[in-house]
Write a structure and sequence with these properties.
The chain contains 15 helices and ten strands. Helix 6 links the parallel strand 5 and strand 6. Helix 1 runs antiparallel to helix 15, helix 12 packs across helix 13 and helix 14 crosses helix 15. The termini are far apart.
Length: 386
């Protein structure tokens, strides 16, 4: 079994998180919709891309530094918005934000987080990003945007691919809720996770901090599924970008783009960046992997907007391959959650260090000194997803 001293890759974090995190929350992070075909393809399609090794090139001085929407970053990686992060580990969003800030990359807080916008602002020193789901209660959304502005968030990440909720079989079978319902099966499972339980007893943050006490008629929130079924807005369209932009007044990143036509609409909407993402394979099962959709989207928009990708990144090599196929930045979700669930803030820090190290070494093997100069020529078969 993996132990903290033997962790060498993201998969080691996953195995340790599976031991330490209660089943319903581990499964929430480590699952996709329906058959999970798209969820698996996100990861496996990276392996189809082969790297071109070069030798006798001066690679003595290498740099992973880059920018994402004008923000200097230690490497072209941001932590993606993930729901229920504070159920992977107590105060999970705070710990993740602190680790990201110290490392020098952006952290994105989800609307469906356990820790609130105000919690993150109180425990960090630099601006973070806030991810927005557009719900039917527009008054609540406007107040949510105002809270993000008051917390000095530097970008709004607008997720567009959750107008309806994809069916995730494991969540239904586990009876996902926050906090866990005291069923016999849940109590038995919790009894095997003493570290998690002890940490959760030490925090007051056990529900949806951005929603409970803020949304009308929501005194407590016991079910993510019922909330999303009632509030996520299937009428969301590009026309809504105007009032969101006007209310926000800052940089906007649109997430959930999987088609070149939608990428062009993102440019026309005035967004500062788009994220090629299929929601980690948690929405439309049968959609292509994010990495396979990336080249056509990058080609469709050229330099008119920053193109990032999200989905299936488990290593620094994956980041390098995404950059090679046209992304100027990436986002990581599950890699971050596995590390957090396994070892808290120290796990996230170690995960970021591993990804950076893998990217740096691989870039050197490919004969490149600067991540900003990585292009399709570092791949032997870049055309496979064209």
């Amino acid at each position: 079994m993996s132990t903290p001293s033997k962790i060498t890759c993201v998969e080691d974090f996953r195995l340790l998180a599976r031991r330490r995190v209660p089943r319903m929350f581990y499964d929430y992070a480590d699952s996709g919709s329906w058959t999970e075909g798209t969820y698996r393809a996100n990861e496996t399609d990276f392996h189809k891309l082969k790297l071109r090794q070069r030798v006798a090139v001066d690679i003595d001085k290498r740099s992973l530094r880059s920018t994402m929407i004008g923000q200097d970053v230690a490497m072209p990686v941001a932590i993606a918005p993930t729901g229920l992060t504070g159920m992977q580990h107590a105060d999970g969003e705070i710990l993740g934000a602190k680790a990201a800030e110290k490392f020098g990359i952006p952290f994105t807080l989800s609307t469906m987080s356990i820790c609130s916008i105000e919690d993150i602002a109180a425990h960090t020193h630099k601006p973070f990003w806030f991810q927005l789901y557009v719900m039917r209660d527009r008054d609540f959304i406007e107040r949510l945007i105002d809270r993000a502005k008051a917390a000095n968030c530097s970008a709004l990440v607008l997720t567009l691919d959750l107008q309806v909720l994809g069916q995730r079989h494991k969540d239904i079978k586990n009876g996902l809720s926050t906090p866990p319902k005291p069923t016999l099966a849940n109590m038995i499972n919790l009894a095997t996770k003493p570290r998690w339980c002890l940490n959760m007893l030490g925090t007051k943050r056990r529900s949806f901090g951005n929603i409970v006490g803020h949304a009308k008629g929501v005194g407590d929130l016991s079910s993510l599924s019922s909330w999303t079924a009632e509030q996520f807005d299937p009428s969301l369209s590009w026309k809504d970008m105007e009032w969101i932009k006007n209310r926000w007044g800052g940089k906007i990143i649109v997430k959930g783009i999987m088609d070149p036509e939608d990428a062009r609409l993102a440019v026309e909407s005035g967004a500062d960046a788009l994220v090629v993402s299929n929601h980690g394979g948690r929405q439309l099962d049968g959609a292509p992997s994010s990495i396979s959709a990336l080249p056509a989207i990058a080609h469709a928009v050229g330099k008119e907007i920053e193109v990032w990708m999200d989905g299936g990144i488990r290593s620094g090599q994956d980041v390098l391959k995404a950059i090679a196929l046209g992304a100027s930045g990436t986002m990581i979700g599950r890699s971050f959650l596995y590390a957090l669930g396994a070892m808290g803030e120290a796990g996230v820090t170690r995960c970021l260090q591993m990804i950076a190290n893998e990217m740096d070494i691989t870039m050197g093997f490919c004969g490149r000194n600067d991540i900003r100069n990585v292009d399709r020529s570092v791949l032997l078969n870049p055309e496979i997803f064209d």
